[in-house]
DNA sequence: AATTTATTGCAACAACATTGCAATATTATA
DNA sequence: TATAATATTGCAATGTTGTTGCAATAAATT
C-alpha cells in the first residue's frame, strides 16, 4: 500500500498546517480551497494518522480532531500531551504539558486521550 | 423540577452499581432486568449526572460511559481522575490516580476528560 | 380522590463517521 | 511514451450514537 501524492492530500495538510491547531473534518472542508468529498477527507486524515503525520483527538463534543504530530515518531510517548478544547471558538489546541500517569501492574496502555474543556485565553 | 422515584431510575442505577464500573447506554439496556426505552435510559443517565450521582466519560470509541461518583460533591476536583478503557472486554473503569495538569494563564478549565485505552489486567 | 407535573415510550431526527463500488488518477514498468 | 497496476476519489448508502417533540402515563402533593 504505497502512498501517492495527490492534490487532495496536499490541500488537507496545508489547511491544518496553516491553521496551527487541530481541526475537525467539517472545519477542514470549510477552509480547504478545492472541493473535496467528506468521506475522502476522513480517509485522508486517517491515512495521515496511520503514517504518523497527524494524531487524532476525541473531544467532548464527540468529534474527532486531527493535529500535526511534532516528533511523534521518535518516541512512543508521542501524543501523550494534554489538549485544550475551547467551547467558545470551538478550536482544539495541543498543550505542551505531557500527561503523567501511573497505572496498576498488568495494564497495557495503547493510547492516551486527554482533553481539557473550557474557555481559552483569547475568548475569556 | 423535583425528582421522582421510578422503577426505571432504580433499575438503571442498580445495574451500574452491581457492575462496579462505568457503563454505556447499550450495555445498560442489555443488562437491565426490565424493558426500558433507549431514549429514557439516556434521560435517566443525564439526570443522574446533573444530580451528581454519576459522571460522564467520553471514551475513544466515541461512546459515553457513565460511572458512579465517589465523593464528587465535596470538592470540584470531582471527576478529575484517569479512566481506563479496555479494548478487549470493552469496559471502562475509574482509576484512583488524579489528573495533574497545568495550563497557561488565562485558560479556564471547566471539564476534564482523560481516558487511557489499552488492555486491562484481566484481558492481558 | 383529584390535581399537578415529572417521567416515559415512541418515532423522528440530527450529527458524525464509515463502507462498497465504480470511476479516476498516480506511479511504476515496459 | 504508452501501458499496466493499483492507490485514491466521489457518490450514495449505511451505521452508530445521542437528542427531541409530543402525547400518554405515573408519582407526589393536596
What does this structure look like?
The structure is a homodimer of 124-residue chains. The first copy, chain A, is α+β, with helices and mostly antiparallel strands and 124 residues long. Chain A is globular. In chain A, α2 (25-31) packs across α3. The termini of chain A are far apart. In chain A, the strands form two sheets. A three-stranded mixed sheet of chain A has the order 4-3-5, with no helix packed on it. Chain A contains three helices and five strands; from the N terminus they run αααβββββ. The interface between A and B is medium-sized, with 32 and 32 residues. Chain A binds a DNA duplex (30 and 30 nucleotides) through α3.
Helix residue percentage of chain A: 25-40%
The helix tally of chain A amounts to 3
**DSSP strand tally of chain A:** 5
Note the main sheet of chain A. Answer: 3 strands, mixed
* Biggest interface and residues each: A-B, 32 and 32 residues
Strand content of chain A: 25-35%
| Gap between N and C termini of chain A | 46 Å
Specify the structural class of chain A: alpha+beta
Mean pLDDT of chain A: 92
Q: Which shape of chain A, going by the Cα principal axes?
A: globular
Radius of gyration of chain A: 15 Å
Instruction: Describe the oligomeric state of these chains in a short phrase.
Output: homodimer
Element-by-element helix/strand order of chain A: HHHEEEEE
Strand arrangement, major sheet of chain A: 4-3-5
User: What low-confidence regions of chain A span 5 or more consecutive residues with pLDDT below 50?
Assistant: none
Amino acid at each position: 500500500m504505497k502512498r501517492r501524492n495527490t492534490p487532495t492530500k496536499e490541500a488537507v495538510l496545508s489547511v491544518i498546517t496553516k491553521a496551527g491547531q487541530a481541526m475537525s473534518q467539517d472545519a477542514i472542508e470549510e477552509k480547504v480551497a478545492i472541493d473535496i468529498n467528506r468521506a475522502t477527507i476522513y480517509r485522508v486524515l486517517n491515512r495521515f494518522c496511520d503514517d504518523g503525520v497527524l494524531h487524532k483527538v476525541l473531544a467532548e463534543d464527540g468529534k474527532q480532531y486531527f493535529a500535526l504530530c511534532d516528533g511523534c515518531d521518535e518516541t512512543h510517548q508521542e501524543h501523550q500531551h494534554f489538549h485544550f478544547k475551547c467551547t467558545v471558538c470551538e478550536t482544539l489546541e495541543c498543550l505542551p504539558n505531557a500527561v503523567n500517569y501511573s497505572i496498576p501492574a498488568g495494564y497495557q496502555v495503547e493510547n492516551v486521550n486527554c482533553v481539557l474543556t473550557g474557555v481559552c485565553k483569547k475568548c475569556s
